[in-house]
């Protein structure tokens, strides 16, 4: 997961006129929440409106996935947001908890939650699901779609495994092999939401998504570099690439993008991601570049923000520290819309 900065709320000012009345005038104001949610009660497990919780969490911490969610069918959108919110909950464990013992407890909570959700007895499992908004919505998803437990468990296992690993892998291939299970789970795991597993196109689409998984992993590596430098004074450039371009960690920590060889290293990493996108598109020649069936297109929209980032990075001469890359790109939403309308990757 990457840290993204968000635009703050728009502040509106208004002027009031002094009017002498027998009783003070009551100023009209908008409600701070909708009527339907104002009566929502909360428990220790969180709000009893799981969709609102998941949507808010994804909007704040994974806004690109939140934009893509608008092109999912209404019912499937709630499950997609639950899936993404589940990933965010796991990401927060690895980024906010410094003690391994506490992190292990949190990870075990989600393992137990999945075990309950996928219990062989639907009646007992429904009542035993933890009253956490994400768990509740995941339980509803499992009851209505053939979502594999494997991919959800893989998210937990990969997050737990990488928690104790150094930020830099020995090579780019090692990094991809270590972290791509996260992207794999987010893409392949959600495919059954819109396409039955036994559909004739499932195999080919899954192969395409595996290439996009590598694309997302590479983009995540590049986007995380400025975050690691700023927050932990660490770099995540694979060791083999650092040696190839004679990168010096202290030089990167002090000078950022001006460090000798860093832009060349980012160019090589970014090229690997773009190559995977090109390969994925090459497999769609028979359908003139379109995703068929059209119902599977929402899953492939995750590639749009990744490609958009790589192209912006290219336009900035592969300066991963450039301030423009930390800002929200207002062009992203129409790009996602256009990709969805065209049905092409």
UniProtKB/TrEMBL annotation:
A Pfam family per the record: SQS_PSY
Cross-referenced InterPro entries: Isoprenoid_synthase_dom_sf, Squ/phyt_synthse
Protein name in the entry: NADH dehydrogenase (Ubiquinone) complex I, assembly factor 6
